[in-house]
Specification:
Protein name: Carbohydrate kinase PfkB domain-containing protein
Number of helices: 11
InterPro entries: PfkB_dom (IPR011611), Ribokinase-like (IPR029056)
Structural class: alpha/beta
Number of domains: 1
Shape: globular
Radius of gyration: 20 Å
GO molecular function, one term: heptose 7-phosphate kinase activity
Strand order of the largest sheet: 5-4-1-8-9-10-11-12-13-14
Pfam family, one: PfkB
Distance between the termini: 20 Å
Largest sheet: 10 strands, mixed
Domain Carbohydrate kinase PfkB: 19-289
CATH architecture: 3-Layer(aba) Sandwich
Amino acid sequence: MGVEADKLRSLVDGFNGKSVVVLGDLMLDHFVYTEPRKLSREAPVVVADYSSESYRPGGAANLAVILKRMGARVSLVGSVGMDEDADKLLGELKSSGVDISGVVTTGRKTCVKRRIYVGKRQYLRIDIEDRTPLEGPIADRVLAMFSQSLEGADLVLMSDHDKGTLTSSLIYQALELARTAGKCVVSRPKVEHVFDYTHTDSLVTTVREASEAVGVKILNDSSIRNLGFNMLTRIECGSVYLYDQNTSYLFEQSSVTYVPPLAKSPYHEVIGVRDVVTAAYGLAYVTSKNPLYASLISRAAESLYVEATNGARAQISEAHLRESISRFFEDGYSYRTVKVR
């Protein structure tokens, strides 16, 4: 079936002013850039000269910043430590216009992903994090902040990176609060907690992580369908969107839609692409209440992001997304929906 680009662009226009609550694992991305000089005599490694470094929000914090750039009003709920990394992260979020009043300070170490580049290649990643499940008074404070943030919200996005914030207990309680308040909920789970996100409006994850969570090996189209409908039934959600650098799949109660790629690029190598997919899908879903439109707009955002240069990725906005839709969907792009009994 074909796509009406005008319809998709009008939905992106509707992103402006949408109120979104993001609940999840907050991280700081630290990038260290160097230039290779010689091989070391001490070990078989490169000796490199320091060039520069930069900091960006990561995890659910990055999702919040992307949503803000796409036109939404964003309240972020999660936790950070009492350290310099937390100050850097909160400073970046504040300057991006994200509401951080729901961020709780704890005695835990702020999660940091430190990426070391030699020339243009990432050489090493060092993770500094405490993955102990959040519980007790700290979890209660996070949940209280989440409850307060729900007033006036159009959408709740739950962004799980398996760093301890979204425990089974907290997920259950947060979903109960959101449902009682009548909020639209889109979740992006990690493998361990996929089946905790029951009765959400829609769930977004990769084909690979879904396969790992369900225990279904992807061999052919039949196994893909088995995977998607298995998740749909067990999680009891409205729809499941499984994305991949090749074909992505939207599962609804009686159909599966095959959404071909718009750009050829190894998205799994592009830092932050999953947050872009989730942000675009969530905003498009709450604007249209149509998971098909959400998956198409998400695919456009994904392709725009992976094709951009590193510097341009940090500036992608709803205006860029509208341009991407015009470029990708005006010339006969089509998807395929198959009805299933």
